[in-house]
Amino acid sequence: KQQAANLNLGRVADKQAMGSLSLRASLGLFLVAISAAEWINSEITRTIDAKEHVVRIKTEYVLNGGKGEYLVAYPAEFADRIAYIAAEAGKGKDIPISQKEIKDGLVFFSTDLGTSKLLTVSAVIVNPFEMLPAEITQQEPQFVVYEDTELVPSPYPTETQTTKLKLPSKNTLSVQPEEDKRSGATLTFGPHDNTAALAAGAFGSLRAHFMNNFPAAVAHDVFREIEVSHWGNVAVEELYEVRHAGARLKGGFSRIDFMQKRLRESPAFTALTARIPAEARGIYYRDQIGNVSSSDIRPAAVAGQIELEIRPRFPLFGGWKTEWYQGWNLPSEAGLTRSEGGRYTLTADFGIPFKDVWVEDHQVKVILPEGATDIEVRVPFEVEEGRSSRATYLDTPLMGGRPIVTLRKLNVVREHNRPFTVSYTFRPHYMLHEPLVCVAFFAALFALAILLGRVDLRLTRGGGAAG
Fold first, then answer.
1. Nearest 5°: CA angle at 360, between 353 and 345?
2. Domain residues of the chain, as ranges?
3. Coiled coil located at which positions (predicted)?
4. Beta strands in 149-216, from DSSP E residues, in sequence order
5. CATH of segment(s) 217-430
């Protein structure tokens, strides 16, 4: 009996061992399958453009091995400073990309590549520099420090990668690590071969200290109003608060020195150029004092646009700021279209017309005619949206006032200057509302005048005629 029991125990142990081996084999095959489906970066080419006061990073991936979701990583310090990010699969096919999570010192963005093996990701980083020194005199150039990763952070292994750093000039104080190749103001790092999937701290650091005199014009707030009238006009007005975000001016300002040396490179700026529709009429540029006559309008190189050059009353150095408002009128046909069934669509650009200014807080208000209903808004990127109404002259509580669509977005850059649309339903007879209000007002006024003309205000004594 004891031998039989031992034999049975041995058989059970053999079955358990075979089951364990089978489980391990299955798990191994599963891991191999996962590994086979994992992405491999065959080649990564990163181009960092640091010529302006924002940094544009374009990263091109040539991939192998996987399909579906692909994760793109940046240093976690960039998470709040990535103003714009876009992805292309293959050659020019835009695909959605969105932030997924922040962990291990990296911020991850997710995109679905399907079966494509080519990916291009473009990102715009705001507040990318440290001013060093933080203060400069009127005659000194501006030097900045840019920090990034030496290697492109990625959760996948990379066979080879190269980074190019484009600077505004050859004047560099230090670059760490030393570049592998220099061509004018372009520094090349790499190629680096066979880098493993990277975790925090494993991708090294890149630090460049160089001269950058590009005017750091930053708009703290921009309020833009677009008022639609079906009487043939679309009015646009923009309110700006702009500061110079570069190295602060040390010492006093000398107008004489500035005029004598204004041809030299300087981080200060004296003018900003906006591109507005060629149909614009009644253009104005004013500040708190009044009309600013130091502006100019000229044809633009782009068809259908004109250039509005504005010149503040004083040049702006680091730490200085100015405020102004500008506006113009457009004919309705320049941006308003009508479809069947009384459906109207307004098309306008979301961003500001100044390509060298980025905005910290941008608000766009679209004021529609009284009586507009079934409002739909389409914006090509994520924004905060609000609805309200307001009553102006000739509006009545019966109609509910003029509908207002408010769009808000933080950190707006040049790439956000894309068209958005506001569609609504408006019945033609609503246009008679305001004229009828005017007619009713004057009719009541005339009726009151006639009534008062028939009233006898003379005083009588004892019921007889006066006097």
1. 50
2. 40-211, 217-430
3. none
4. 158-166, 172-176, 181-183, 186-195, 206-211
5. 2.60.40.1730
Structure tokens that stand for 137 in this block: 């005199």
Flag whether pLDDT at 5 surpasses 60.
no
Residues 337-362: what's their mean pLDDT? 92
CA 7, CA 327: separation in Å to the nearest integer?
96
> Which among 390, 392, 399, 388 has a CA at the least distance from the CA of 433?
399
Mean pLDDT confidence for 347-355:
95
Q: CA nearest 189: which of 83, 47, 338? A: 47
- The Cα 28–Cα 295 span in angstroms is 72
The Cβ-side half-sphere exposure at 349, using a 13 Å CA radius, reads 20
pLDDT at residue 81 above 50?
yes
Measure Cα distances from 270 to 259, 275, 286, 293, 340 in Å. 12, 17, 16, 14, 49
Residue type, 370: E
Torsion on CA atoms 60, 62, 67, 73, rounded to nearest 10? -40
Q: Are 342 and 230 in contact (CB under 8 A)?
A: no
pLDDT at residue 109 greater than cutoff 90: yes
Tokens 């292994």 found at: 157
Side chain identity at residue 374, one-letter code: D
With H, G, I as helix, E, B as strand and everything else as coil, classify residue 437.
helix
User: Quick one: which of 322, 412, 321 has its CA closest to 362?
Assistant: 412
CATH class of the region 40-211: mainly beta
